[in-house]
Design goal:
Rossmann fold; 3 domains; 35% helix; 21% strand; globular
Length: 639
């Protein structure tokens, strides 16, 4: 059963949302099929009535009804709601009911099949309830961890009560599948991997199963408990995936046209105890990804973004609303003069102070190969700790002397700024500086870390950056001044001075090839860059040494330069002179025949046109057919 939970601590309601009958029927039918396909002891002579079945949270009994209709007879059901006792016992007299919490069960009785819809309830907003459970029940005491969900306990307890070879099928939310050990699954995933095979996974994220539980993405999974011999032999099994097409009603989706079924690229032996399970990874997709990754290896090791770049947020400020100034509100610009509003009066700032005001860009300004210059209406007060010498006391005196008006503006909010720093356990005297993002630490030759101050890099160094929330590859670029805050990630080179080929890698990161990798590896950036930096392979140029490959790389680089100019200037298409220049570049590298088979150069050449050419060249570089990638994306990801 789903549980609805109002997060407000002052008005919290916890209620059951019972399972739709078509879900129960779907799950029971699949358990029957899997019993035939996977159970070592199942044969046609084995009667379902002899199998011991458990429903751990029966609710109004919808699973019980379907189980009985399908000839299961030896059924035990738990239900915590005493008000349902009379109804359940009179409606299902054949069932062995236990009106207690399933988590309280100390019985050593084990089952062939466990099936149901356990309650969902997050620990974060129900900490007192979880503490009560820890005090009451051994299973809760044993497996409690912060950020967990109530149904984790039901999985633990369910596995404990399965016979070896037995099957467990639950419908739950799907968030635990992609969580790591730091986010609540520290005990759950290792326990599953040690004791069970994940046989089947049904992705219901495109369906609205529980209409009163908004924002819920659900899944169904089937586990099989390992035998002692299977554990000893380290037996492996494949994982079968079923995905439902978007906006389909499940009871009508059993038509094969509405279901994508495939073997996952991950077997059970590939599942990690500590990190995300990318189950929606068809083996057909995996083989294509491996072709790409084989060209991204150095000495047998796969190179990824994190091997080349440090990916870090922009400037993290003490308080955004104080350090970020709005044009025409907090600031007035009059020709070369700038005035800041202090105590309701506009005061002219000096020449040095003007250099401390940095034009600020939000993540919404980022576009492939560039940024929208016209989306900047704000300025940032940015003091660099490296700007003035001396210890804090003398440095602050010098700071106030050099920047009198900007420091005065900040000092009007001194108490507020100091309090914020204290709460963050940071030095409350540093009210003038960004909290983070002003420098990076990079490895040096003697295995120590070198501090690199970033202001020169923000100002006049090539930069690749991307939004902190996005589900597709959008990588911007700027070689001049570009400042952003925490809503933007920057790719800083790990080696300085750097020999990184920015224009080539910018083209690669914005390509359809990387779009495919985003989908294949389920990369969605939601305030965390971990999946991106660990899962995007970085091409090793020594693997592209033929004459043709070198020409392709050179052309991609030059086309990328054109795109950065076009996308930053705001122009819609290349001038006639630039168009001829581009065609000349292609002809000079003897690649015109490859490209002209797909494109005509009679039309105006805009950024979309150039991007398509770059995509064609990159597929050629990686020995892939663009049509094959299009087919795979359409087959597996346009649901």
């Amino acid at each position: 059963m789903a549980v609805k939970n109002n997060k407000s601590t002052s008005d919290k309601t916890v209620g059951q949302i019972f399972t739709p009958s078509y879900i129960a029927e779907f799950m029971v039918k699949n358990i029957l099929r899997v019993l035939k396909d996977h159970s070592n002891k199942y044969d046609e002579s084995l009667k379902l009535e002899n199998l011991k079945v458990l429903e751990p949270s029966s609710g109004q009994g919808i699973f019980l009804k379907i189980l009985l209709e399908n000839d299961f007879r030896d059924i035990t059901a738990y239900e915590i709601d005493e008000s349902l006792k009379l109804y359940l016992e009179s409606t299902y007299p054949e069932i062995n009911f236990k009106f207690q919490d399933f988590l309280a069960s100390n019985s050593e009785e084990v089952y062939d099949v466990i099936i149901g819809n356990p309650p969902y309830l997050g620990q974060n907003y129900n900490s007192s309830l979880f503490q009560d459970l820890v005090q009451k029940y051994d299973v809760c005491k044993k497996y409690f961890i912060g950020n967990m969900d109530l149904f984790y306990y039901f999985i633990h307890q369910g596995i404990e009560k399965l016979k070896p070879g037995g099957l467990l099928s639950f419908i739950t939310t799907n968030y635990w599948i992609t969580k790591s050990k730091k986010t609540g699954i520290k005990y759950l995933k290792p326990f599953i991997i040690e004791n069970c095979f994940l046989l089947e996974y049904y992705d219901l994220s495109n369906l609205n199963i529980f209409k009163n539980a908004q924002g819920q993405h659900n899944c169904i999974f089937i586990l099989q408990k390992k035998t002692s011999q299977q554990k000893e032999d380290h037996l492996d099994k494949p994982i079968q995936i079923y995905q439902f097409r978007e906006d389909q009603v499940l009871d009508k989706s059993l038509n094969p046209q509405n279901i994508i079924s495939y073997q996952s690229g991950l077997n059970n032996s590939d599942l990690s105890k500590n990190s995300s399970w990318n189950l929606l990874y068809p083996i057909e997709i995996k083989r294509t990804v491996e072709k790409i990754e084989n060209l991204c290896k150095r000495a047998g090791k796969l190179l990824t973004l994190k091997d080349i770049f440090l990916i870090r947020n922009g400037l993290i400020l003490i308080k955004d609303d104080l350090f970020i100034l709005e044009k025409d509100k907090d600031l007035k610009l009059n020709n070369e003069d700038i005035f800041i509003k202090i105590e309701n009066e506009y005061t002219k700032i000096n020449k040095a102070e003007k250099k401390r005001l940095k034009r600020l860009y939000k993540s919404s300004s980022i576009i492939p190969y560039g940024y929208n210059q016209h989306k900047s209406y704000q300025y940032l007060i940015y003091f660099n700790k490296n700007d003035l010498e001396g210890k804090n006391a003398s440095k602050f005196i010098a700071l106030k002397k050099k920047y009198p008006h900007l420091t005065k503006y900040l000092e009007l909010h001194e108490l507020e700024l100091k309090e914020t720093l204290k709460n963050a356990k940071e030095d409350p005297q540093n009210i003038y500086y960004p909290r983070r993002g002003g420098y990076i630490l990079i490895p040096s030759k003697n295995k120590t870390q070198q501090k690199i101050h970033l202001e020169p890099f923000y100002e006049n160094f090539p930069k690749i950056f991307f939004p902190y929330i996005c589900d597709k590859n959008i990588f911007g670029f700027c070689a001049t001044s570009y400042y952003a805050t925490s809503d933007t990630y920057f790719l800083w080179p790990k080696n300085i001075p750097s020999n990184i080929d920015y224009y080539l890698w910018l083209a690669y990161l914005n390509s359809k090839l990387v779009t495919f990798l985003f989908k294949a590896k389920n990369i969605r950036i939601k305030r965390s860059k971990t999946k991106l930096e660990s899962n995007i392979p970085f091409p090793n140029l020594t693997n592209f040494q033929s004459t043709e490959k070198k020409k392709i790389i050179s052309l991609i680089r030059n086309l990328s330069i054109m795109l950065t100019i076009l996308n930053t200037s705001g122009k819609k298409s290349l001038s006639e002179q630039k168009r001829k220049e581009m065609i000349g570049l292609i002809q000079n590298r003897n690649l015109y025949e490859i490209i002209s088979n797909k494109f005509t150069f009679e039309q105006k050449i805009d950024s979309i046109f150039i991007t398509k050419i770059i995509n064609t060249l990159l597929f050629r570089l990686f020995n892939l057919e663009e049509e094959e990638i299009d087919y795979l994306i359409k087959k597996y990801y346009y649901t």
